[in-house]
Each structure stands twice: as structure tokens, then as C-alpha cells.
Amino acid sequence: MGNTNSTTRTVLVIIRWFVGLLFIFSGLIKANDPLGLSYKMQEFFEVWGWTGLHGYTLALAFIMNVFEILAGVAVIIGWRMKLFSWLLLLLIIFFTFLTGYALFSGKIKTCGCFGDCLPLTPAQSFGKDLLLLLLILVLMGSLNRIRSFFRPGAAIVLLLIVVITATAGQLYVLRHLPFIDCLPYKKGNNIVEQMKMPEGAIPDSSTILFTYKKAGKETSFDQEHFPADFDSTYEYVGRKDKLIRKGNGLQPKIIDFSLQGLGGTDTTTAIFAQTALYILVLAKDMVHTEEWRPAFEKILAVTQQKHMTLILVTADANKAVTLFKNIPIVKCDATVLKTAARVTPSFFLMQQATVIGKFSYVDADKLIGQLK
User: Fold this and answer.
1) Which of 53, 79, 283, 308 lies at a C-alpha separation of 20 to 30 Å from 105?
2) How far apart are CA 204 and CA 265, in angstroms?
3) Strand order in 205-214's β-sheet?
4) Which CATH superfamily is domain 268-371 in?
5) Could you read off the pLDDT of 266-312 as tens digits, one per residue?
6) Residues in CB range of 174: below 8 A, 6 or more apart
7) Listed residue (335, 281, 338, 342) closest to 308, CA to CA
8) Sign of the C-alpha dihedral, residues 67, 69, 70, 74?
9) What does pTM read for this prediction?
10) What is the domain partition of the chain in residue ranges?
């Protein structure tokens, strides 16, 4: 009987460590880039038609990341297991619903469970959550066998440190860029190379299906099978794409990156053709320019002194033209910019299409030091 109890306690400790470490890892990797999780939440809300919640996604992401890390530590040390087991159960049911929706609806390509650093397919995410759900249920059924490793006072101090550290870390990256950059625009990457179709990629194969009406009856056909008697008596109704063969889902890491002049001319190739070092200033919008303009002016002065090209890239070009005179301004899609630059603005030190350095405006002095 004693050996059985000992084995059960050992198994429970292993489960607690596994569940706790997985939640800590999940929370930390998303806390590295809370804006990334915020954008993923917005993607779900757009699919459901809940766009009114977009303004709250960053706060939700921030709180969720802190809670995941906190709950993971609490489960490992065995503190207030009844409370945290219930909270984790509710959270994992919610996660399982999200990953299940992503898997079975096909409307969401990744759930963002481990952020951009470790992208999982919907099937992998759903399987992970089902396993966690099972393990949490095992813990809930064994609460009377679990004892805390810490005294209450020590546990509270430890968890308070966890909350403060997770909060401070997220506040830092929201101003200084993520500690670990897992985006395709990270330092050392060539943007053009990231836009290429990966080796082994098989795209979806589809055809256009036309619908026409004749004599009150609708008929559909593709462009290779028009009716033999097709003439002006056929009344056009509509068209849609019909999937013939599903591809393997592999896509370029960067999609739709394009830099356009104020007149709409594509200038991407011309900008990337520069052999000398130059700077791209990525600013999704022209909001709060008074906060970052001093850093911008400081870097602009250094680039002018060194005869370097500095280009402002924004989705709000009309306003940018009125605020910034005598500097090149190009347009870029807002979604692309918020993916490439988590802080507005971010300074990209470039050589042709390769990112040599990437800096938040808060760290302008670091960029200036690299230029000298």
C-alpha cells in the first residue's frame, strides 16, 4: 500500500511539473510578444464578427500571459491547488474550444498558442490542449494527495515576484521590441528571400465556376466546359472559385510586402537595390508623433551627416507628408507594418533587402552608436 501511495505521489508530481512547465513556457513565449497575441485575438474576433472587442485585445493578452505563468508556478509548487486547478480547467476548456474551432472550421491557420516563435498547426494545438485537459482533470481528482512545497508566506512572495516580473517584462517589450525576435523581419533575414515560396510547397489548385441562367434555369460550368449553344441568350448570374485540389499549406513567411511611392508606383525593387546602408523607418500610423519625433530627428541628423538614405514607411502617407518635410516617404499596408514592427516607429538598418539591425525609437541611441 505504501509503495502504491508513493508511486501515485510521484506520478502526480510529474504531471504537475509537466502541466506547470507547459503553461509557464506558453505564457513566457507569448509575453515576449504580447502584441502578437493581441493580433491573433483580433483575427478570431474578426471571424466571429466581434470587431468591437479589438480595443481590448492587448489588455486581454497581457493579463492572460501573466496568468499562464502564475498558474504554472502555482501548480508546480502545489499552492492553492483547488483554486488554480479550477482556473486552469476553465482556461484549457477555452483554449480547446479555440484550437478546435481553428482545426475544424479551417478559418484560422494557427492559434498562436506558442506565439510566432513556435507556430503549431491547428491539429497539433488541439491535440496538446486535449492532453492538458486530461492531465488537469487527473490533478482535480487527486487534490487531497497534493501538498505544497512552500509555506503560505513563501509561496505568496514567490508568486508576487512572478507577477511583477511577467508584468515588467511585457511593459518592456511593448516599448523596446521583443527580447527574442521570431518574426520573418528579424535581424539577419533577407526580406526578398522570405517572400519566396518555400521548397516543397504545393499551392491550392482551383478553377473559376461561372453561373448563367437560360430559360429560367441556372447552370454552372468552368471556363473549359462552356455549353455548345452558349450565346447571348445566357444571362450572367455570378462566378466563384472552386477548389479542385488542396495544397499542403506551405506559404512564404512574408506575404504582400510592397513599398509604393506617393503616386502608387511600386518602389520595392528600387529601394532594395541600394548597395549602401540605409534606414527604413516603419511607422504604421502618425499617432503620438510628438512622443517619437525627437528620436526620429536625432537619427535623421546623423544620417544626413553621413549621407545615408532614410525613408519613412507608413500606411498614413497623407498625414506623414504634412508632418515630415524633405524626406522620402513611401506607403505600405498597415497589416504588414504592424507585423514587421511591433513598436511604432521601428528603425530598420538595411543593406539591400537584408535587415542589419532593428531598433525601437526608444533605443535610438543604440542605432546611432552602431552608425558611428
Assistant:
1) 53
2) 30
3) 217-222, 205-214, 235-245
4) Glutaredoxin (3.40.30.10)
5) 999 999 999 999 999 999 999 999 999 999 999 999 999 999 999 99
6) 34, 35, 342, 343
7) 281
8) positive
9) 0.83
10) 2-176, 205-245, 268-371
